[in-house]
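Supplementary Methods, section 5.1.

A reviewer requested that the exact input to the structure prediction be made available. We therefore reproduce it here, unchanged from the version used in the analyses.
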Amino acid sequence: MHHPYPDAGSTAATFAATAGPVGSAATSTRGLTARRVLLGAVLLGILADPLLRNEPWGLGLLVWMVAFAIVAITLVRQSARTLSAESITWLVAAVLFAACLAWRDTGPLQFFDVVAMLTALVLLAMSLSAVPVPGLAFARVRDLIRAAFGTGLDVATGAIPLVLRDAELHTAVRPSSDGSVRRILRALVIAAPILIVFTLLLTRADPVFGSFFAFPDVQLDVVLSHIFIPGFFAWVVAGWLRRSLMAHPDRADSSNTPFPLALNTTDLTLALGALNVLFAAFVITQIGWLFGGEALVLRTTGLSYAEYARRGFFELMGVAALLLPVLLVAQALIPASDSRTHRLYRILALSLVVLLGVMMLSAAVRMRLYVQYYGISTDRLFASAAMIWLAIVFLWLALTVLRLRPRTFAAGFLVSGFAVLLTLNVLNPDALVARSNLARGAAGRTGPGGADLRYVATLGGDAVPALVSALTGRGAAAGAAAPDDRCAAASMLLGRWAGERRERMSRTWTQWNAARSRAIQAVRDHEAGLRQLACPTPADKASAPAASP
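The structure derived from this sequence is encoded token-by-token as follows.
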């Protein structure tokens, strides 16, 4: 029907479409995004309670990270943004390293997998928000540090402004014309805790009065844990999502902000020049023992070859790890316009890298000797992997920073670290160490160089199948070991992978881990044989019949 007052009708329709509900303020786009972030954080917090409550983490973490990825992708699309190829890469990397916790059971490896997962999430937040730089290709090491610090700060505190300001929750509820709903809610919030406290006191004061109230018998610590765990993860996710989706690149500090300290040629000559002299003197002594052999070491230090190797490797690794930040900080403190100082820096830094290469070669030889005498362990394996990574990093430093391409160094630094860690996951450190130790025993090595069955029994689930096979299969490795070592290893396996512990780890699927599952199955299949090998307990000794005179 034709409207008698077309102008008035169109004006009313326009107002109804733009003003929203009568009496409520319009919600901004930022407020709508903040509410979606809050909803996603709450959902992930609730999901974390059943999936991440029990330790050690396993399949539950992978499921939670997949849910996290789905929520993050949904929120990005709802905010009319697109995921770049780099963002997708970091999201896949975070899920991949979470999956490694359901794959391997090596303690240090799982720790580094968690660190890699968190690092990928920091890089994902940086690529989504473009703070402090749009992506890894534009980042220097200082930008990565700022991204990690900024993300950590938002994770710790971002939920507060998200709830109090960004979400604009005051516009979510239509207020009544006279404010009666708000007054009633306010009164309930004030009166409810007071009423509950006095009710509890009065029920305890009079059993007759207390009989009218039936309070459920709940364990307060369990209730609090079911509140704390979802609350903690919801808080963390809310801060991360706020950093990723609601940060403003134009508010970030420029990465080209000059440092308060600037280095000149005199500073570099004294600092890096002195290091060159020190490193050169050390390298000269290394040439002596590398070619002089054990006789020279024994004559000059009084130490055996094995003791000499044991005392030097980790100190040399510390030198390599400390030199990297020294060179990076020195390069950052040189003014961009000072070409003379830059040329001097490249000469001194390159000579330091070359000298460090000789020192790392010495460290590698020391580690080889150490393993030759004492066998491989997970600590020695991870130290060797760290040395390989540092060698890659210093080579990349020479190809980028020392060739006036510092922005590409950070990308190689992180990508090489991820690659080394993934390689370790594929190599399976615990299984590799177990096989190596058992092979040394099978070769007839005894003492410190032989098979250390007790040490192998302390490793994670990846090492258990090989050890169980050696103990119950009457192989050469177990046969060469002392009887006390065999019974101790069998007892440790039963204590870790049978009985109550096995039932506890098998109780929930969220803790499922491929390596732990194989370990439990291997011990279950050979439990009778392991119990025959196990050392007798005090109860077994007390119940044993006395020997006849």
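The chain has three domains: 27-171, 265-427, 430-539. These observations are discussed further in the main text.
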